[in-house]
Amino acid sequence: MEVVLLSVNKTRDPALKTLIIDYVGRINHYVKFSMVEIPKINYSNNNKEEQKNKEAIEIKKKIKKNDICILLDENGKSLNSIQFSEHLNRYYCYNKKRLIFLIGGAFGVSKEIYSIIIDEISLSKMTFNHQMIKLFFCEQLYRANTILKNEKYHNE
Amino acid sequence: MEVVLLSVNKTRDPALKTLIIDYVGRINHYVKFSMVEIPKINYSNNNKEEQKNKEAIEIKKKIKKNDICILLDENGKSLNSIQFSEHLNRYYCYNKKRLIFLIGGAFGVSKEIYSIIIDEISLSKMTFNHQMIKLFFCEQLYRANTILKNEKYHNE
Predict the structure, then answer these.
(1) Does a structural domain hold residue B155?
(2) Residue A144 has pLDDT above 70, yes or no
(3) How many Cβ pairs within 8 Å bridge chains A and B?
(4) Which of A3, A17, A56, B141 suits a disulfide with A110, CB 3.0-4.6 Å?
């Protein structure tokens, strides 16, 4: 299975990029992992729904019919790292080609995206900078894989 | 009031340091904020309790009698960003000289530290790399201050 982190807006901060790239490398020792970033779309006004709808069009272009799609959102299920690794293991067992974790834009995702996702997971109840969320997710995905392999990274 | 992030183990990763320093600067526009890092103590064995006790000695050296001390721990209260800003505002109103947020070592903190803390807050139920937690906290402290000032950074 291949894991993809699909997100709206590109990571521009070089320090953040450096940290994320390090984790992408580490995760690839366990599972094929890549990041797909949808460039920011510029809007003439500040209409949240319109922005989410335009982002939804771009998100859907990147998702294939048989992908398993999980939304990362602060209103999703709160899991600890062990529980997240168990969820991940369950997704791995679905035996589909791709597992997509989706991070929406600044205003979340449009309603139609909810018909595509099968699960909604929260990394934190707190709202974090959307660029930073990518780093948090990568660290957690790496951690989950080390837990599944009974490796030493995670301390209980 | 002065806010201090007190943590065990120094941040060595230069990219992480860059990101943290940026937030430290931004937070200082709202409140006096600094970070105090206790260097890692090397142990002859892997005894968790002994490690936590040794760390507790160093932690206590950095905490003054009238400090308000909050532990950041995944088992603490889960708050969203708005709730965290409300908590922060309450601490600010205590009118003490220093508000300390404490991040323990890899195995948490020893029992005696719990007699010093007045609150325990969770940034996430998930366990994160302890160096990264500092970055998460700084972003959240910055966000909370912008919320308290009704500024635009936070989107609901």
Answers:
(1) no
(2) yes
(3) 75
(4) A56
